[in-house]
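Let us work through a complete example step by step.
Step 1: write down the sequence.
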Amino acid sequence: MAETNQATPAKATTSVQAKKSSNLISWVAPILCLVAGYAIWRYWIGGASGFESPDAAGGFWPDHKGPKGAFHRIYEGGIIVPILIGMLLMTFVFAIERFLTISKALGRGNNSNFVRKVQYHLANKNIDAALAECDKQKGSVGNVMKAGLRRYNEMITEQGLTTDQKVMAIQKEVEEATALELPMLQRNLVFLSTIVSTGTLIALLGTVMGMIRSFANLGAEGGGNAAELAVGISEALYNTALGIGTSAIALILYNMLTTRIDSITHGIDESGFTLTQSFASLYK
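Step 2: predict the structure and record it as tokens.
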């Protein structure tokens, strides 16, 4: 006699839902920063009033002569300067955006104190109080802990699994919640890391262009015009200074941000360990 097997409905593997968030800033900010960098170089640093012999024709790259001050001499760095200024603006824009996002992800209060409070409530088998602490924390550690606590609460009444299997289910829930939180924290850091490495390379390009200009003038003038030679050297040095400064600032901000992210990931790891160890000891 043929047997009919009725499939039982599959239980959802996780209660964690992917977060939907727009990352429009990663598309818009670089373009706006480069445009702003050109505007600063062309109309502020390269304003006609700052030169003794301005180029009346203007255009994309006016050939101004005789800067009146050190600030306007930066204009002689050439067309690489607005790119470096744009990269510097990008550094500040993405650093501010990341600081705001990470500050929100840190939540309220100290993560270590939060984990200790949850440990206390779990030791007293008060899951609702532990969940309330997660709602108060309102950060990435609280979100991961809350997802784990929900599965923790389900496993208490689950009859078809061993203790080890229940612990594994809680651990898997924590890992899945973590996998959704970390990309949000690390998003757009690639711009800072890219500026760290490319800032000096673009500055080197400007330096080489300036030196080419200097030696070309030497050859054209049959020994060189001192003023033209100075312009070429200044183009090289201004690009070098801007590139090194931009890369240094980006590196400092990148390290500060990654340090804050590391503190969050440490709290997430601690929360996962707390849940699994608590369940293993209390519900054998």
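Step 3: interpret the result. The first helix runs from residue 25 to 45.
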